[in-house]
């Protein structure tokens, strides 16, 4: 019996015909992030587990339930990154990038890993693009980051999202608010879902955002952190809103929204897109002023966002914004008979060295079959080499649009075709 190999649950093969859609997103991200002066950073796909699971521990699902953690052969606990921020901050601290310039702006691209229940828009290996600004708490930075998220989505033809905005405060205002919240929720503690019961003491803020408990009347009437901000946080929040208004960016204040990781402070935001069903958050982010210090760096603030490429693709497919993948070459080399093999191998290699896209049939098919390949690949020219051509050190070049055929000396064929084919476009 042949063994059937299948990809792991929650992963996907991105086939050549689909890559054009992925590249369109990646190319646009790179172009736009550079315009806003962000620079690419690439960090390892796995990190020491402590980079994600620090000190007192985190109460969020991502860290508690979703991480791919394993012991390597040296008995170290490693984790496949579930998100990009912690790794970027770890690199910033370890490489002492704060010594180069106070405020640094990064972007990244790559696979992330979470042990989740796979469904449309939710996978175990998925891909994120993201940005981070480390070193400034200026509310103009918050506005820039949110503005870039808005601009990026619109640039991709996605413009029916709503931007949800909140402030989750700082350790100062959160401490006093937490006491009030616990007092308010105490009477219904036993009615809450299992997760909320276990996060009750540590992070009751998350109960307001719980998918199961959020419409319990007592949860709905709970005091929000947004109404309990300290002066600094309230001022920051108000200023961010003023700047967004100046930029013409529309948003909704969403007082129950908290972020999926505990290190977030102040500004939190999510872009939600209705067209892709229940799992609708396509881009999300916020401030993380405590994280740099938590990872052993100086007391510097940070802010960023991350978005899932798969969900963008769903949103674009819903709008028919897909990119036509092309499977095309300019030239197909057709070899007829054994004596033509050497010349065809050489000519093909020389065409490619001159940056002419070219291919050949590797099935040993006859001339007819080889010409079919040229057809399928929408080639503009075929270069035919048979016994006659070999004996006269030439090739026959056929223009497939006019059906005209000319004899060209082998050493001239590259120049001959270069004059007629540029960047995949025939000049005639
Ligand atoms: P959700 O509420 O959908 O679980 P999250 O809060 O866990 O989202 P973040 O950690 O903020 O998500 O990640 C940012 C973005 O990455 C999400 O808005 C989404 O577009 C994408 N994303 C997160 N988890 C997945 C996943 N398992 N599969 C595909 N995309 C994902
Ligand atoms: Mg999640």
UniProtKB/TrEMBL annotation:
Biological processes per GO annotation: histidyl-tRNA aminoacylation
Keyword Lipid metabolism found: no
Pfam families for this protein: HGTP_anticodon (PF03129), tRNA-synt_His (PF13393)
InterPro entries per the UniProt record, alphabetical: aa-tRNA-synth_II, aa-tRNA-synth_II/BPL/LPL, Anticodon-bd, Anticodon-bd_dom_sf, His-tRNA-ligase, HisRS-like_core, HisRS/HisZ, HisRS_anticodon
Subcellular location: Cytoplasm
SUPFAM superfamilies the UniProt entry points to: Class II aaRS ABD-related, Class II aaRS and biotin synthetases
Keywords assigned by UniProt, alphabetized: Aminoacyl-tRNA synthetase, ATP-binding, Cytoplasm, Ligase, Nucleotide-binding, Protein biosynthesis
Domain Aminoacyl-transfer RNA synthetases class-II family profile: 9-315
Signal peptide residues on this chain, from the entry's feature table: none
Complexes and interactors: Homodimer.
PANTHER family cross-referenced by the UniProt entry: HISTIDINE--TRNA LIGASE, MITOCHONDRIAL-RELATED (PTHR43707:SF1), HISTIDYL-TRNA SYNTHETASE (PTHR43707)
HAMAP family according to UniProt: His_tRNA_synth
Protein name: Histidine--tRNA ligase
Source organism of this protein record: Sulfoacidibacillus ferrooxidans
Gene that encodes the chain: hisS
């Amino acid at each position: 019996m042949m063994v059937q190999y299948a990809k792991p649950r929650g992963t996907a093969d991105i086939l050549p015909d689909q890559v054009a859609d992925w590249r369109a997103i990646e190319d646009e991200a790179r172009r736009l992030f550079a315009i806003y002066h962000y620079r690419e950073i690439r960090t390892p796909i796995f990190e020491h587990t402590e980079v994600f699971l620090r000190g007192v521990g985190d109460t969020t699902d991502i860290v508690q339930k979703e991480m791919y953690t394993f012991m390597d052969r040296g008995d170290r606990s490693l984790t496949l990154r579930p998100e990009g921020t912690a790794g970027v901050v770890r690199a910033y601290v370890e490489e002492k990038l704060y010594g180069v310039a106070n405020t640094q702006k990064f972007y990244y691209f790559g696979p992330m890993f979470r042990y989740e229940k796979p469904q449309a828009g939710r996978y175990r290996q998925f891909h994120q693009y993201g940005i981070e600004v480390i070193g400034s708490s200026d509310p103009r930075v918050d506005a820039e980051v949110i503005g870039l998220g808005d601009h990026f989505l619109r640039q991709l033809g996605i413009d029916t999202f709503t931007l949800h905005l909140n402030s989750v405060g700082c350790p100062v205002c959160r401490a006093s608010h937490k006491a009030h919240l616990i007092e308010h929720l105490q009477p219904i503690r036993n009615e809450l879902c299992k997760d909320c019961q276990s996060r009750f003491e540590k992070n009751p803020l998350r109960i307001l955002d719980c998918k199961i408990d959020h419409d319990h009347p007592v949860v709905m009437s709970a005091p929000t952190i947004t109404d309990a901000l300290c002066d600094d946080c309230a001022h920051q929040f108000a200023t961010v809103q003023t700047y967004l208004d100046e930029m013409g960016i529309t948003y909704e204040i969403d007082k129950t929204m908290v972020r999926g990781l505990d290190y977030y402070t102040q500004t939190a935001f999510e872009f939600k897109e209705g067209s892709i069903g229940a799992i609708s958050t396509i881009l999300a982010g916020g401030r993380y002023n405590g994280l740099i210090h938590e990872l052993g760096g100086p007391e510097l603030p940070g802010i960023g966002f991350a978005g899932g490429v798969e969900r963008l693709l769903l949103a674009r497919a819903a709008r028919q914004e897909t990119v036509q993948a092309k499977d095309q070459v300019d030239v197909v080399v057709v070899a007829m008979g054994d004596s033509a093999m050497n010349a065809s191998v050489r000519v093909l290699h020389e065409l490619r060295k001159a940056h002419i896209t070219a291919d050949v049939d590797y099935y040993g098919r006859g001339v007819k079959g080889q010409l079919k390949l040229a057809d399928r690949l929408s080639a503009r020219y075929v270069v035919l080499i048979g016994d006659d051509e070999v004996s006269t050190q030439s090739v026959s070049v056929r223009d497939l649009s006019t059906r005209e055929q000319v004899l060209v000396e082998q050493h001239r064929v590259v120049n001959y075709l270069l004059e007629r084919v540029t960047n995949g476009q025939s000049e005639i």
